[in-house]
Amino acid sequence: MPIKKAVVVGAGIGALTTAIGLRRAGVEVTVLERRTEPNRLLTGGGFMLWHNAFVALRQVGLA
Question: How many CA atoms lie within 13 A of 29 on its CB side?
Fold first, then answer.
């Protein structure tokens, strides 16, 4: 039985990439994030993406 609906928890780069990939595969996706304002996502530390992350982003059209 194919997956028709999914819930992704968090709005980090991994979660949003997962949500986009699922939507492109025809799955209805709901993203849950505890922060109430998008500008709150700008606080915190930096991050680094390794080569395999860029490969995955290219595969879902986000390179």
Answer: 19
pTM of the predicted protein model: 0.70
Q: Which residues pair with 6 in a beta bridge?
A: 29
At residue 9 the predicted structure's pLDDT band, cuts being 50, 70 and 90, is: very high
Would you say 54 and 12 are in contact if contact means Cβ atoms under 8 Å apart? no
CA atoms within 13 A on the CB side of 30: 5
The Cβ-side half-sphere exposure at 41, using a 13 Å CA radius, reads: 11
Count of domains observed in the chain: 1
